[in-house]
Amino acid sequence: MATVRIENLTKTYEKVTAVDGLSLDIADGEFFVILGPSGAGKTTTLKSVAGLVDVDAGEVSIAGTSMEGVEPYHRNVAMAFESYALYPQKTVFDNLASPLRSGRTGKYSAQDQQQRIEAVTTTLGIDHLLKRLPRELSNGQRQRVALGRVLVRTADVYLLDEPLSHLDAKLRAAMRAELKQLGEMSSTTTLYVTHDYQEALALGDRIAVLRNGRLVQVGTPYEIWHDPVDTFVARALGQPEINLVDAAVSDGRLRSADGSVDIPAPTHLDLPDGRARLGIRPRDLGLVAPGQEAPADSLVVRGRVKLAERLGRLMEFSVESGAQELIVVADSDVRAREGDEVSLVLPLADVHVFAPL
Ligand code: ADP
Ligand code: MG
């Protein structure tokens, strides 16, 4: 049973404020993701929970107990670092067994050790590497062993700092599906740091988005995806990034300055007159190829295809429309080529509206 409470945490290195008045409340058993670009303060936050940095202000409590003055060794947390520290002269098996033999969390019987190592290495896809030495592994394999070292033992809280960052995309996707199923992970409070929004959306019970050491938004993946509080969050989610269009709101309509976008203001948003920024995700835009009809009653923007690029099973188009350039991701059966005049279908319900610049 362990909640984690971070209250008003601040940590400054020389001139850089790495974490700036951060407060987070993490529930017992929650899989909590901290998402943000490099330098956002994610690692510093995790290290503060582990007790590995002296914070300037604020407090961390685990299971309702303040960790002030509690040595890292006495906090029952297990942390995996971005760099994978392994014993170079020990085999993978012994690297994984050593946290179970150290006695910090109580001793595990030989049978228990064997079972835990088996469960973790199967999930991580490293069960065939048990006799190897770290130098005989690839970076991705080493990173999985390092993660395994954390997950084999029980702890009140797992702290995982970009644990899949060195894996290739395919393996990363496969592992993120399996990670949460791993026995202990499914019930142990986990703080998981990543800069990869897909990982965050796939894994998090909730996600906190950090920018310059500050909390920008916290919520479920659904809330963060559907209701990003600002353009920073909206842009952090999605590749290619969300399209942003400056517009004026008046008479119940949204118009871009160049007139290319002129649509009814979404009634569910109840917008005051003035300026706004529209956000439209590339996958939410429809592309109507030359010679095809846009669905009746659809809101259409005209444009010309500047670039067409295949993205695996999808196509990415860059469409020039007035002064804007809009990115569209469409199914690959959409036949449009560079230079074609096309229509883009705007999905009113999926248009996000943000404060103006
Ligand atoms: P993230 O993990 O999100 O990339 P970090 O917590 O590592 O961010 O770093 C946040 C900021 O603090 C960065 O600007 C980084 O350069 C700075 N920083 C982190 N650790 C140190 C350190 N030991 N000394 C000086 N600056 C640091
Ligand atoms: Mg980091």
Automatic annotation (TrEMBL):
A Pfam family hit: TOBE_2
Keyword line: ATP-binding, Cell membrane, Membrane, Nucleotide-binding, Translocase, Transport
Protein name: ABC transporter ATP-binding protein
UniProt xrefs under InterPro entries: AAA+_ATPase, ABC_transporter-like_ATP-bd, ABC_transpr_MalK/UgpC-like, Mo/tungstate-bd_C_term_dom, NA-bd_OB-fold, P-loop_NTPase, Transp-assoc_OB_typ2
All copies of domain ABC transporter, residue ranges: 4-237
Matches recorded under Gene3D superfamilies: 2.40.50.100, Nucleic acid-binding proteins (2.40.50.140), P-loop containing nucleotide triphosphate hydrolases (3.40.50.300)
Gene Ontology MF annotations: ATP binding
Source species, domain of life: Bacteria
TM region positions: none
